[in-house]
Amino acid sequence: MTREELRLLREIQALEFTVLEFALYLDTHLDDQAALEEYNDYAQQLREARMEYQDRYGPLHIMHPSDYPWEYPESPWPWQIEY
Amino acid sequence: MWRYEKILQYPVRVSRTDLSLAKLLSAQYGGPDSELSAGLRYLTQRYVIPTDEAKAILTDIGTEELAHWEIIGTLIYKLTEGVPVQRLRRAGLGADYAQHGRAIYPSDATGVPWTASYIQAHEDPIATLHENMAAEQKARATYENLIDLSNDAGVIDTLTFLRKREVVHFQRFGEALNIVRDYLDNEG
Question: Do residues A28 and B129 lie in contact, with contact meaning Cβ atoms separated by under 8 Å?
Answer without folding.
Answer: no
